[in-house]
Design goal:
By secondary structure, this protein is α/β, with parallel strands linked by helices. The chain has eight helices and 17 strands. The protein has two domains: 202 residues, FAD/NAD(P)-binding domain, CATH 3.50.50.60; 114 residues, FAD/NAD(P)-binding domain (3-Layer(bba) Sandwich), CATH 3.50.50.60. Strands 1, 2, 3, 4, 5, 6 and 17 form a seven-stranded mixed sheet that branches. Strands 8-15-9-10-11 form a five-stranded parallel sheet, with helices on one face.
Length: 323
C-alpha cells in the first residue's frame, strides 16, 4: 500500500520539526521521516555540550525556550524540541530510513525501510552529522578510532589523540584531560580554530602553553596501529604511544542521496547543492532543502538560529503552488 501525503519531510531535527509545524498550521497532510531518534544529531552530541547560541536563538515558531543557563546545553535542547514535537502532536515517524526517492511526473515516490509514500512535495532537512570526514590513513578502521565523542570517562588514564581544532575537538580534549586522560592534539592548521567558542579558547591555549595538553600544529596522522600512531610534523615524523584516536574532523551531508534525486551539486570543493534561496526549492521542482544541508561542505555556514526561517520560506512557496 502506498501512503499519500501532501508534504513529506526527511529529517526530524529542529529544522524538520519547524517545517512540520508550518505544515500543520496550513492543514496539509504531512509526515516527518527520521532514521533515528527525535533530533538524532543533537542526541549524538557530547553529553556535556553547551551551545554557542543563546536559547532564544534556538527557538522555533516563537515557542519560548527557557534555559537556566546563559547558553543552553544538550539536555535542555533535547527537552525543548521533544516538548515542541509532542505538545503539538506532530506527525513524526522515528527509526524509519529513506531508501530511495523517485519523481514520477509531478509526484515523488519515497521508499523507506517500513513502507512506501507518494507525496506532492518533499523537504530534505537531513543535516550533515551522519557521515564523518575520514582521515583516509592506514589503521583508521581499528576499533580504537572513533569519529564521534560522547563523554570523557572511558578515556581516563589512557593515551588519547584528538584530531582537529574545532569546537568539538577542543571540548573533547579539555574534558578528557580533566578526567585524567593523557591528551595529544594533532592539528592541520597553525593554531586553534578561529570559530572556537570565545570562553573556551583561552582555556585550551593555556593548557597547551603550560604543557598539560600536547599539540602538534601543521601536522597530520599518517598511520594508526594497535598501540601507536605515526604523525608527520613540519620537522619530522614521530611515532607515539596511543590507546585511542578521537578524530573529530567534521562531517558532510549525504551527497549520494541528493545526486540520486537529481539535485545538482557544484563541482568545486564546497559541493554546494543547487537551490533558490528565495524559495529553498532545488533544481528538482517540488523538492526543497532546509537547514544545514544547504551549505554543502561549508557546514559552518548554517545553524539552527539562521536556518529556522527556511521552514516559513518553504511553506509560503508550497502554499502558492497548492493554491
Amino acid at each position: 500500500m502506498i501512503i499519500e501525503k501532501d508534504v513529506l519531510i526527511i529529517g526530524g531535527g529542529p529544522i524538520g520539526i519547524a517545517c512540520a509545524l508550518e505544515c500543520k498550521k496550513k492543514g496539509w497532510n504531512y509526515v516527518v521521516i527520521e532514521k533515528g531518534a527525535l533530533t538524532n544529531s543533537l542526541y549524538n552530541y557530547p553529553k556535556n555540550m553547551t551551545f554557542f547560541s543563546t536559547s532564544e536563538k534556538l527557538e522555533i515558531d516563537e515557542i519560548p525556550f527557557i534555559s537556566k543557563n546563559p547558553k543552553p546545553n544538550r539536555d535542555e535542547a533535547l527537552e525543548y524540541y521533544r516538548r515542541v514535537a509532542t505538545s503539538n502532536n506532530l506527525e513524526i515517524n522515528l527509526y524509519e530510513s529513506v531508501l530511495n526517492i523517485n519523481k514520477i511526473d509531478s509526484m515523488f515516490q519515497i521508499k523507506t525501510s517500513k513502507q512506501t509514500y507518494s507525496s506532492k512535495k518533499v523537504i530534505l532537512s537531513t543535516g550533515f552529522y551522519d557521515i564523518p570526514n575520514l582521515l583516509n590513513v592506514p589503521g583508521e578502521n581499528l576499533p580504537k578510532v572513533m569519529h564521534y565523542y560522547k563523554e570523557a570517562h572511558p578515556f581516563t588514564m589512557q593515551n588519547v589523540i584528538v584530531v582537529g581544532a574545532s569546537n568539538s575537538s577542543v571540548d573533547a580534549a579539555l574534558e578528557i584531560w580533566r578526567k585524567g586522560g593523557h591528551v595529544t592534539m594533532v592539528i592541520r592548521g597553525e593554531s586553534i580554530g578561529e570559530r572556537v567558542k570565545y570562553w573556551v579558547r583561552p582555556d585550551i591555549v593555556n593548557r597547551i602553553e603550560e604543557g598539560s595538553i600536547k599539540a602538534y600544529f601543521n601536522s597530520e596522522i599518517i598511520e594508526i596501529t594497535e598501540n601507536e600512531v605515526g604523525i608527520k610534523t613540519p620537522k619530522d615524523t614521530k611515532t607515539i604511544k596511543n590507546d585511542y584516536v578521537v578524530a573529530l574532523t567534521g562531517y558532510q551531508p549525504d551527497f549520494k542521496l541528493l545526486k540520486e534525486i537529481g539535485v545538482k551539486i557544484s563541482k568545486n570543493d564546497k559541493k554546494l547543492p543547487n537551490y533558490n534561496p528565495e524559495t529553498m526549492e532545488t533544481n528538482v521542482k517540488g523538492l526543497y532543502l532546509a537547514g544545514v544541508i544547504c551549505g554543502g561542505m561549508e557546514t559552518h555556514k548554517w545553524f539552527i538560529e539562521n536556518s529556522r526561517i527556511h521552514a516559513k520560506i518553504i511553506a509560503k512557496h508550497i502554499d502558492s503552488a497548492f493554491n
